[in-house]
Every structure is written in C-alpha cells, then in structure tokens.
Amino acid sequence: MKVLKFGGSSLADAPRYMRVMEISTATHQTDGAAVVLSAPKGVTNALSLLCEQAAAGEDFQPLFDKLNDTVTGIANNLNEELDGFAHASVLDFINSHLSVLKQHLEGIKLLGVAPDNVAAGILSIGEYISVTLFSSMLSAKGIINRVIDPVKYVLAEGDYLDSIADVSLSKARFSDVPTDGSEFLVMPGFVAANDAGEKVTLGRNGSDYSAAILAACIDANCCEIWTDVDGVYNADPNQVEGAVLLDKLTYQEAMELSYFGAKVLHPKTIGPIAQHHIPCLIRNTLNPVAPGTLISNEKSEVWTSVKGISQLDNVTMFNVAGPGLKGMVGMASRVFEVMSNANISISLITQSSSEYSISFCIQSKDANRALTLLEDAFALELQNQLLDPIEVRHDLAIVTLVGDGMRQTKGLAARFFNSLAQARVNNVAIAQGSSERSISTVIESKRAKKAVKVIHQNFFSDRHTIDVFLVGCGNVGTELLSQIEKQQPALLKRNIQLRVYGIANSRKLLLNSQGVDLSGDWKAALESASERLSVERLHQFANDNSLVNPVIVDCTSHEAIAEQYVDMMESGFHVVTPNKKANTSAMSYYRKLRKTALSTNRQYLYETTVGAGLPVIDNLQKLFSAGDILHRFEGILSGSLSYVFGKLEEGMSLSEATQTAKDNGFTEPDPRDDLSGMDVARKLLIMAREADLELELSDIEIESVLPEGFAENCSVDEFMQQLPELDSSMNEKVEAAKAEGKVLRYIGSIEDGKCKVSIQAVPASNPLSQVKDGENALAINSDYYSPIPYVIRGYGAGGTVTAAGVFADILRTMPWKQMAH
Fold first, then answer.
1. Does pTM top 0.85 for this prediction?
2. pLDDT, tens digit, for every residue of 736-753?
3. CA distances in angstroms from 664 to 486, 499, 649, 659, 774, listed in the order given
4. Is 683 known to be catalytic?
C-alpha cells in the first residue's frame, strides 16, 4: 500500500480536488492507497487570523464569511461535477463545524486570548473539512473508503500546537486498519492526540509529518508527498536561477537539507520514514508525469558529491563566554539544559578550542525568552564576572552545503568559503559535522540570498554572470549597449549571462530587476525614469536583487563620476571605464584607487583609456609585473589627432579635418579636449604611472594645437565656428614640413622620467609618419625590448572600437568565478 499526501495548491478548488482523486484512485487500483490531506488552500491561515482577530477584540465576521464561502463553494462545485455527491451531508458537516468555530471565537473575544488547546481544535478544522469532501467524492465514484481520525490513532506529546508523535505506540493502534487495499484510507493531516485524548497539532508542515507517521504505522511500501514543485532542488528555485532538480537523496541528506531550511520537507517528516526504511517520493500534482525526487537509502548516480544548498532564515546567535567556562566541567551542559527545559531547539553549535566561549543558534522567535532564561540561570556567574555579558546577534541566517559524497571530495570547504568571500559575506560562525555530510556558516540574513546564488554557481553551474550598470549614453555608451544586445546568443553559448540592469545619464537613472530590454526603446524608458544616479541607489538595488557580479561601466568623461570609483568598489562593484579623469587625478587618488581595488577584491579596468581597443595597458602591466623597466616611450596616442594630422597631410584645412573627425565620432564631445593636447597628456600620464613614475598632470609639457586662450569661454558650436581662424597658420606649418620632406604628427613621449606632448615634423623614415586615419602607434624601449622597441599599432579612434574595448574589459570581470575552481 502507498501513502499519498496532498496539500497546498493541490486543494485550492474543486478541479484540483478532482485531479487529486484521479491521481490517488489510479494508485489505489494498482497498489492500494491511503491519502493524507491538508486543509483547502488558505483555510489554515484564515483560521489562525480569525483567532488573532478575536483575541484582539476585532470584528472577525467578514473573514468568517469569506471562509464559509470558500469551503461551501468547493462543496457546491464538487456537487456539480459529481453525480451522487453527498452534498447535503457535507454542507451539514461544514455548517456544524463552522458554528462551533464561531462559538469558540466569541469565547476567545471575551477572554482576549486563544488558549493553545482551543487553538489546536480550531486550526485543524480545515483538514477535517478536506477529508469530508474527499471521502464524499470517493463514495460518489463507488469507491469503498474509510476515514481515519488521527485523534483515535496517533499518539503525540509536547505542546498543543507543535507535538511529536510516538510512532511505536501509535502503530499498535492501527491493528484494526485494513492495509490490503480493500478500502481506500483517508486521514486528515496535521492532527494527533496527547495521552489525555486532547486534540493537538503537529506544527509546521504537519500534514507531511502525518503522512510519514501513517506510512510507518501501516508499513506502507512508499510514501508520496505531492506538492506544487517537481521535487527537491539543489537550491530554492525561487531564489536561484538555474536550480537543478535532484533525482535521489539519502535520508541523511534529506534530513540535513530540510533541517537547514529546504522548504519541500520538514525534518520531522523524514524521521519516521528513515527509521522504518520507507522510500519517500516528492512529486508534483500539477505535473504528475514528472519523475520527482526519491528519498531512500539509494544514492544518486548523477550527483555524487554536493547535493544541495539550504538556507535557514530568522536565526539568532548567542555567545556565552568568559573565564568561568575554561576548564569548568558541566558549564556547556548547563547552557543547553536551559534551552532543553524551555523546549527551545538549537540549530547550530560551535565552541572555541580555548574553551572560552560557546556559541549556538536558535530561531529568532525564541530569542528574548532564551536570553531571560540564560541570565537567570547564570546570574551568579554574571554577577561575579565569571561570564561576560551574554552576546546576542540578531538578523542572521544559516547557509549549509549538503552531500553524502563530500567526505571523499577534497577542497570543498575551501570552495565553499571562497564563494562566500566572492559574495563579500563575512562568516559569523562555522560548523561542520563529523560525518562531513554538511558544512554550515552563520551569516547576516540580508546577504544570505546572494551567498546562496554564488555558492550555487560555483558548485552546480558553469554559467558566469555579469550584472552591468552603464553610466553615460553618448557615442561609446550607446554603441556598447548595441554590441551587448547583438552578442547575447554568442555569450549564452559560452555560458555567460550578461544583463544590463541599469542605464544612467546626467539626469536620469533607469533600473529594471529583470534586466533592461536592449532590443526595445530603452532611450524612451530612460527619459521617463524618475530616479537619479547615486552609488547608494545602485548598491541598494544590487543588494535587493542579490546580484552576484555587479559592474559599473562609466562611459562618460566626467570628473564627478570618476571621483566616485572608490565608493563604487567599496560598495561591491567592479569598475570598467574609458574615462581618463580618475587615473590622471592627483597621485594620492590614483594610489587610493589601486589600494581599494586590492582591499575590496574588485576589478578596476581601464584598458580603453589609452589606445581605445588596443591592448596597451594590459601589455604594459604584464611587462612591468615581470620586472621590465621603461627607458623610453614614443607614440601617437590620439586616434582623433591621428586622423586630423593625416588629413592635414592630404591637404585638408585644420577646421575641415576637425569637423570631419567630429562628425565621425573620433573626437571627444568637445574637440578642444583633443586639440588642446590635454587628452594625449592624460593618456601619457596614465602610461607613465603604469611605469611607476610619480607624476602629476601639471608635470607634463604640453604643446597645444590651439593658441593659448583661443575660444576658451564659448560653446562647442561657437568654437567650431571660430576654428577656421587657425587654418592659415597651421597650413604654413604643414607646408614647411613638406618642404623638408616631412609630415606633421602629434606625438607623446616619455624619457628620463619626463613626459612631453608636441607637434613634430617627422621624416618618411620614421614609422610614425605612416600612422594616420585614426590609427594609434606606441613604441616601448625597455630592458626587455632594446634596441628594437616593442610596438603596438592599430585603429584607435571612434565609438565602435572603444566600445569593443570596454566590452572586453567587462568580460574580464569573470575571472573571480574561474578562480573558485
């Protein structure tokens, strides 16, 4: 015979009751069935709320009427579906129980409190209504059935609202129950009786527990728990994208997972089936063809090491410490005796090797009572300072990694704690059982969801996640979003999930917890957004959505944004930017950026600040980290000026060449940033600082293309209108160079610790004479590259190549995932 338990959404309405009957009668025909039922969906919560309203003296009639409508509505609908349904007797049963309920509620209202023994009877009404409905359905189909009242059969002890069944004594009471399949057995879950014959309830997930008890008492060959999910997942699928359905769990693994928060089963449920070696199958009422998860003595052949991650919320940790603990036999037992006498369950225990302290975790609902009891029990020790004041930490969670095969797999603990470090989560306490079947850590509850997501990625997924926030929607930013949108299929093939969660400009901030739709009109969505950019808001959003790998991409040229990079990294963001302002700020800020990146374990990537998409910075860093020393550098660092001076060589005027470069998106938004030489100076300073030269921007000698003070205090458009005034003087320089067989180029150089940016006439023999049309070229003379320099040359202007370089930097934020392996 099989025991089947149904509850939750399985009993939401008449059609779902019909589905339950269809599933269970099919089982009854082949194996014989015993069905345990919960209350109709929402009924137990309504009953609990009715007790609260009555105790508070509130008007409970509206909720009472709604409850009546719910259960009578199901009965009425079943009467329409089934010929021969005992409609009148079912309604009589419902009405009589609701009439008694109303009397109890009136009494509770007078008392101002709901006594536990009365509450137990009230809270179980839904189960009895459910069983009455179902028994009448079976009878209407001509199926012989028997309703088993747990008050007569299941003996339990403990609190009225959270009792534990005595399976061995209960089993003796089932001697008159037929188990040969001749009768369809139906039993309400959640209910039992104490040794005085009073009705009690079995606590959270009590109906699952009832099914396990019934299975043990009638020696069932299987216990099936029918829920609204396909089985047990290796993490909560509502919190972790990509959570995997497990095919099998051992009883011990299921116990560990359920004890530390897995919602499909409660530890009390596993006890009876494990003790009597009854296989338990978790199945989905809404998807009965799914194979489900088998809990038995069989080990999975698919998941041989780590099985799952569980999260237990609403945890409070106590730390009992002091010199009185050292070497004092019996102190630990006194601590736990206090908890035991108060019937307070302890979730986790850890003790320092010095014997100076004992820490343990309990459910937060018991915290105030536990503290009072401990302070009373150890009043003398506290008064004489043998114990320190008892430390209590609230708002915690326990995250646990579970699997029978963990003991045979090396390095799991290291990967587990490395995952927590990646999630920027501090361990409050750590515990591992001697069976090595689980590792638990106590952490802040607000970080638990993120911790579980990172752990799951490291142990169960090959997918890398990158969570992007873009600041700056100009030429480069817009092109970057276009590239990200186009590359989504290719990224997913490489197991990279890159989502843009936020887009900001100088006025607006657009955020979307599902990711911004880059194929849609995100510009209009940004324009209609009501929020403004701030690091605090992005940090809050990342935490609220438990983003694993958040990256801020700054595609502006604003100094105000660059000044916030330290705050961004300290808030948990990687920073990727083509903005040169941060690296060319004061040397003190430059050092602080690098120090912060190291201390926060965040990536600070700025490859595109020099050479656009060319790998300049990365190659320099590799050279210098390998011990190379820079002697001399010379190069064309501005793609825009490379283009402009190439056009001058071809006979175009300065104003025409600049306008063309601007139209093509080669220049900065304000071309004066290029023509002043300041853009090249900033790039040169970045390279100098990478070579460990401690220079400020003011130390660089700059020869500007523009005369000093030219068109400084006017708009960009006004500047472009005045620029033709310089055409003749620049043309003279071009012609003078041509007369000597040379061409003009704008060159930056580093030599003897000094930096210089200038217009130079170079002969055809100089490699830089061939660099134009937006190309960059860099020649590095160093210890390793001498006398022939190390040359990097390539296209270095325009939004497309710069955005591609930024995109490449964004993808470099993934190594934290690879390092975990």
1. no
2. 999 999 999 999 999 988
3. 22, 29, 19, 9, 10
4. yes
